[in-house]
């Protein structure tokens, strides 16, 4: 290594040896020796090699070594220098390349080294260049190549030097002697530092392993031992992390997978190689974090170890040879034959070694095993002592004087764990004193009464009292089990405590100690009471959690069973549908195959018949040909032999008959062929006809579907156009009947008032005048005014009705369709699909099946009256003219708007949103009773749990905590959101929330009623829809008072029915219709009976009968509540009243049917009488139609 020297004794011998000894040892200068000139460093700074040589000689003399032994020692050292100069060349032999010594310098160095070691030069050369292999009793001699010869030379030199060093140490020990009972000692261990060169070999691995072991010892001594002391004393100083290198030490030396152990295992194999050892390392420690993977091209030459100081790469080239510490037999025999006694003593162990017993394998000696054992002995020695560490820090890497590299120094401090050591000192407690020392210093000087007080107390208690008496800060010390620990820099406090002047400060300190003891006894008693209370609270919480866990288990088991049942049910339905489809397809395939087979069979039969006919035709042709040949033959015979004419005529006749038969057979064959071809054609036509029929049916189905879609679209367009035309017609009719003026009401609103015409009756004029006054006073709004105006603008009965504009046939058809449509419920738009539905058909959408609920509007602010779930009506807009009221207390009752208010939880209802997810709304039953009235008027308000929570947040912002403390809002369920859409809808949670919300609303209303008059709460008013309902109730009471002054109903129950109908008309979409109670049901029944009597007794067009229209309006408005009262599935309906409600609903349907039949008869009468057009019926959705009718 550049800048480093070899062992100092070599340079000391060259510089300090006498001239005679140098000449005898043939020594020159350091530059001439291979073992000294590799680093180009021959002189060490501040080192006098000559003086040090004299010191070594003096030391050897002191330990009793005479001149002869010293001469032998220096001769061996000189011989090692000459041995390093032995260089080798190679020659080619039959066995391969072999090392030889042929240069003059090498031969001279070999001869000199052998002479200085007392050996034979040839024998020494043979040991270096050859090796013996013994197998099964046979001896083989193998020559080494030049490289292996160099390894063998260096190994011999290292072995001799190491044995010489051990021999000198043993001689020193013998000279100094050893005490059988050694005294305590102080040892100093100076170790070499961490090494990382460009090429690192086996030596660097052992050196770095030593540093790793000593670093682990440092960690144990500084970190682990200190932390264990704190742990034993029960002191907490916080967590301290330090670089733990135990895994790296285990990687190098652990058994059986450590690097050194794997090296020994590979060396024990028959043919060990470094390549096998390296491959085994990579396989074994491939995933070890302290064994990084090198570059793939370097994996065949090196391995990397992550040490505490950094990563070091080790090049594997001679690990096996360098690890072998076994001396070959020929080498031991060589040195045992030396002429120097000292050299023979170096190998005395081999000389005394006995032969290995038969069948027993000789233990292989290795440098790694020996080094590991020595390191373990060193660690055991260090662990048995108290170590103090001195860290040497290099100021720079350039070895320059006066240059300090901060980054280089900080890197060394981090690698050596100095940062963590400083942290331990920072949070540690270096100053310690035993309790016994302080107790002994104080107890004997304390007064008798103080001694009695502290006689039953522990030493720690007395020490705590002393520290409190001296007013020592609590962060300056820690109390252990047996010791008192002070932080760094607090030793002055300990001196002040130990050097107390009892004459002057003693009474004051004892008094403070007594005061501390009294306070401590009081705190202990208080802590016991608090512990008992906390224990009881903890037991209650544990029981509550057990109950909660039990409820969760019950719910989860039920949910799991239901979920599994639904899955099985869905799977069964799917399997059934798939199986039925599969069976149907199979049946269709079988039928299709049968039809094709039948067609093929018919075609095959036709082909067979045609072939038979063809064969018959060919046979006839052959018969005819044979007949012709026979005729020719007979003719020739007749001509040649001149037979008689009769015979000739007979044969000719036979020939003619045969020819006629042949012709007839040929014709029959042609007919058969034509029939076969016709049959084949018919079969093909049948198949083609079936295909065309199938295609035609599919096309017809497609055309039918498209035609239905077009018809629906055209019908929708015609319906919309008819509505627009009817609206235009109605507007024209109203515009032609009266003049409209714009005026201001008493509330400052702009309203449209109809001027009283002259062509109406006096009674209608008076009623129109009263209606104008109600509009201007604000008792009714513009929409209701426009609904009532057409009743009063019709001409007297003795005049013929105006024909009105002429409608087209399409417009008349649209109006007739609207005229004859029977709809008795309320139109509600489905929130899921947008289809308009009627509540008379049920509470589910006819298109998608979803529940008909009011869709949530856009999010608004708390100042908006629609914020808490409200939505504007589609028929008319209810303007809130009355400002929000203020809650007050009137005795024990809550008062607002001049009446008494009450609120309670009515129940809950499960609804669905647009995504078909279920949610729960909580229904409140609110009532307002005027102070002069005897019975309240009720309405229902429904909100989700989140809307209640929003109200709570608004009230918290509105009401200061100094004025009033709001009650706690019911908490959300602890599993909310875990099972989407289901957890908050379970019966237990809904019931729990219902009770909590009822308690919360009662307390909130009571608090708001007790607030100062300057602090209004409009948020609660809007949440309960209170002012709107009170305004509507007051308006209806005013209307009833007006009715009492005019036309009186036929029955006193009609007043209550009309009031119910008015409240139902004012109901918002978020307010659910409620079932009728017994009194309300009686009023409804009476209204239905009166309507039936009025229809039966009326004459003419019922749409012009004001009494019928008024009663019909009341009954239709009450129909939703009547339907809910007659619904068996409604949990809010009164079971005892359901039969009466069902009978009343049936009577109402019969009455409306009678009303529609009467309208149909009136329409036919108009047609028979020849009138141009019947009066225009009421068009739903138009508030200014000529006449409003509620029967359709």
Automatic annotation (TrEMBL):
GO molecular function terms noted in the UniProt entry: actin filament binding; ATP binding; microfilament motor activity; phosphatidylinositol binding
GO biological process: actin filament organization
SUPFAM superfamilies: P-loop containing nucleoside triphosphate hydrolases, PX domain
Bias-annotated ranges (Polar residues): 1181-1192
Keywords (A to Z) from UniProt: Actin-binding, ATP-binding, Motor protein, Myosin, Nucleotide-binding
Single GO cellular component term: cytoplasm
Region (Actin-binding): 375-397
PROSITE patterns the UniProt entry points to: IQ, MYOSIN_MOTOR, PX
Annotated stretches, region: Disordered: 603-632, 1171-1192
InterPro entries named among the record's database cross-references: IQ_motif_EF-hand-BS (IPR000048), Kinesin_motor_dom_sf (IPR036961), Myosin_head_motor_dom-like (IPR001609), P-loop_NTPase (IPR027417), PX_dom (IPR001683), PX_dom_sf (IPR036871)
Domain of life: Eukaryota
Annotated ranges, domain Myosin motor: 1-499
Domain PX residue range list: 900-1031
Pfam families: Myosin_head, PX
Family: Belongs to the TRAFAC class myosin-kinesin ATPase superfamily. Myosin family.
Name this protein carries in UniProt: Myosin motor domain-containing protein
Source species: Aphanomyces astaci (Crayfish plague agent)
């Amino acid at each position: 290594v550049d800048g480093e020297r070899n062992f100092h004794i070599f340079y000391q011998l060259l510089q300090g040896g006498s001239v005679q000894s140098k000449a005898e040892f043939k020594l020159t200068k350091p530059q001439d020796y291979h073992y000294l000139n590799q680093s180009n460093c021959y002189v060490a700074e501040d080192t006098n090699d000559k003086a040090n040589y004299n010191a070594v000689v003096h030391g050897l003399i002191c330990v009793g070594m005479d001149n002869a032994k010293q001469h032998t020692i220096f001769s061996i050292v000189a011989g090692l220098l000459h041995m390093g100069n032995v260089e080798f060349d190679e020659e080619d032999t039959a066995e391969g390349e072999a090392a030889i010594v042929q240069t003059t310098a090498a031969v001279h160095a070999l001869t000199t080294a052998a002479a200085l070691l007392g050996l034979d030069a040839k024998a020494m050369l043979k040991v270096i260049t050859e090796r013996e292999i013994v197998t099964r009793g046979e001896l083989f001699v193998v020559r080494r190549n030049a490289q292996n010869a160099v390894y063998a030379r260096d190994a011999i030199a290292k072995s001799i030097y190491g044995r010489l060093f051990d021999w000198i140490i043993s001689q020193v020990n013998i000279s100094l002697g050893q005490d059988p009972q050694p005294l305590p000692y102080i040892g100093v261990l100076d170790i070499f530092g961490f090494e990382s060169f460009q090429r690192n070999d086996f030596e660097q691995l052992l050196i770095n392993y030593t540093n790793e072991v000593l670093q682990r010892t440092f960690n144990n001594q500084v970190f682990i031992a200190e932390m264990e002391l704190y742990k034993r004393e029960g002191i907490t100083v916080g967590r301290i992390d330090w670089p733990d290198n135990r895994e790296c030490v285990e990687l190098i030396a652990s058994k059986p997978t450590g690097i050194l152990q794997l090296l020994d295992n590979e060396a024990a194999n028959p043919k060990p190689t470094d390549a096998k050892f390296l491959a085994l390392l990579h396989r074994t420690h491939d995933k070890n974090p302290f064994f990084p993977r090198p570059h793939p091209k370097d994996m065949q030459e090196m391995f990397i170890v992550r040490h505490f100081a950094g990563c070091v790469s080790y090049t594997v080239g001679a690990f096996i040879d360098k690890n072998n510490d076994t001396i070959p037999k020929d080498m031991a025999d060589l040195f045992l034959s030396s002429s120097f006694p000292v050299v023979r003593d170096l190998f005395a162990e081999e000389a005394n070694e006995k032969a290995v017993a038969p069948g027993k394998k000789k233990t292989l000696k290795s440098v790694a095993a020996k080094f590991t054992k020595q390191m373990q002995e060193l660690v055991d020695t260090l662990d048995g002592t108290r170590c103090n560490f001195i860290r040497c820090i290099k100021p720079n890497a350039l070895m320059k004087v006066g240059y300090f590299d901060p980054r280089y120094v900080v890197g060394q401090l981090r690698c050596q764990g100095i940062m963590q050591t400083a942290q331990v000192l920072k949070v540690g407690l270096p100053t310690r004193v035993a309790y016994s020392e302080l107790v002994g210093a104080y107890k004997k000087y304390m007064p008798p009464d103080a001694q009695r007080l502290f006689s039953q107390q522990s030493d720690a208690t007395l020490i705590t009292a002393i520290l409190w008496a001296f007013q020592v800060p609590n962060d300056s010390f820690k109390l252990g089990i047996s010791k008192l620990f002070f932080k760094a820099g607090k030793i002055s406090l300990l001196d002040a405590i130990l050097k107390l002047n009892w004459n002057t400060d003693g009474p004051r300190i004892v008094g403070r100690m007594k005061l501390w003891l009294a306070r401590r006894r009081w705190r202990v008693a208080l802590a016991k009471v608090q512990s008992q209370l906390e224990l009881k609270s903890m037991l209650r919480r544990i029981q509550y959690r057990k109950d909660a866990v039990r409820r969760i288990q019950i719910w989860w088991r039920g949910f799991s069973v239901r979920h599994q049942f639904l899955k099985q049910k869905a799977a069964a339905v799917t399997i059934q549908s798939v199986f039925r489809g599969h069976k149907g397809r199979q049946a269709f395939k079988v039928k299709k195959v049968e039809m094709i087979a039948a067609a093929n069979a018919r075609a095959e039969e036709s082909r067979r018949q045609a072939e038979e006919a063809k064969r018959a035709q060919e046979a006839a042709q052959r018969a005819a040909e044979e007949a012709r040949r026979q005729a020719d033959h007979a003719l020739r015979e007749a001509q040649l032999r001149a037979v008689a004419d009769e015979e000739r005529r007979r044969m000719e006749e036979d020939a003619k008959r045969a020819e006629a038969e042949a012709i007839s057979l040929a014709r029959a064959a042609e007919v058969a062929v034509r029939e076969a071809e016709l049959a084949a054609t018919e079969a093909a036509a049948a198949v083609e006809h079936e295909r065309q029929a199938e295609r035609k049916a599919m096309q017809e189905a497609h055309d039918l579907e498209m035609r239905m879609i077009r018809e629906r679209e055209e019908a929708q367009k015609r319906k919309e156009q008819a509505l627009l035309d009817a609206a235009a017609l109605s507007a024209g009719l109203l515009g032609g009947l009266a003049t409209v003026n714009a005026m201001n009401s008493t509330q400052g609103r702009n309203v449209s008032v109809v001027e009283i015409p002259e062509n109406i009756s006096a009674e209608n004029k008076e009623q129109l005048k009263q209606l104008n006054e109600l509009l201007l006073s604000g008792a009714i709004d513009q929409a209701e005014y426009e609904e009532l105006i057409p009743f009063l603008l019709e001409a007297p009965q003795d005049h013929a009705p105006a024909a009105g504009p002429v409608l087209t046939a399409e417009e008349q058809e649209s109006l007739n369709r609207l005229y004859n449509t029977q709809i008795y419920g309320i139109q509600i738009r489905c929130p899921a699909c947008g289809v308009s539905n009627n509540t008379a058909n049920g509470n589910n959408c006819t298109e998608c099946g979803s529940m008909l609920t009011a869709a949530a509007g856009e999010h608004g602010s708390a100042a908006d009256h629609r914020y808490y779930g409200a939505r504007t009506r589609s028929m008319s807009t209810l303007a809130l003219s009355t400002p929000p009221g203020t809650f007050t207390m009137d005795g024990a009752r809550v008062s607002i708007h001049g009446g008494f208010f009450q609120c309670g939880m009515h129940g809950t209802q499960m609804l669905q949103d647009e995504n078909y997810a279920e949610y729960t709304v909580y229904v409140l039953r609110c009532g307002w009773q005027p102070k002069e009235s005897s019975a309240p008027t009720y309405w229902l308000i429904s909100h989700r749990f989140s809307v209640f929570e929003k109200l709570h947040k608004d009230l918290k912002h509105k009401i200061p905590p100094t004025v009033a403390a709001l009650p706690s809002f019911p908490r959300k369920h602890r599993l909310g959101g875990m099972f989407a859409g289901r957890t908050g809808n379970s019966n237990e949670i809904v019931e729990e929330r219902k009770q909590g919300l009822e308690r919360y609303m009662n307390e909130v209303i009571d608090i708001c009623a007790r607030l100062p008059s300057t602090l209004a709460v409009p948020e609660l008013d809007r949440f309960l829809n209170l002012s709107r309902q009170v305004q509507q109730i007051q308006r209806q009471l005013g209307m009833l008072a007006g009715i009492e002054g005019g036309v009186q109903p036929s029955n006193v129950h009609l007043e209550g029915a009309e009031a119910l109908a008015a409240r139902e008309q004012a109901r918002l979409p978020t307010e659910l219709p409620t079932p009728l109670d017994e009194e309300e049901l009686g009023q409804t029944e009476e209204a239905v009976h009166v309507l039936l009597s009025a229809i039966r007794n009326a004459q003419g067009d019922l749409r012009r009968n004001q009494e019928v229209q008024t009663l019909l309006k009341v009954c239709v408005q009450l129909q939703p509540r009547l339907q809910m009262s007659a619904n068996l599935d409604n949990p809010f309906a009164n079971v005892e009243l359901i039969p009466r409600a069902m009978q009343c609903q049936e009577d109402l349907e019969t009455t409306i049917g009678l009303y529609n039949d009467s309208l149909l008869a009136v329409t036919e009468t108009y047609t028979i009488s020849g009138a141009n057009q019947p009066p225009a019926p009421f068009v739903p959705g138009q508030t200014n139609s000529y006449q409003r009718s509620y029967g359709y």
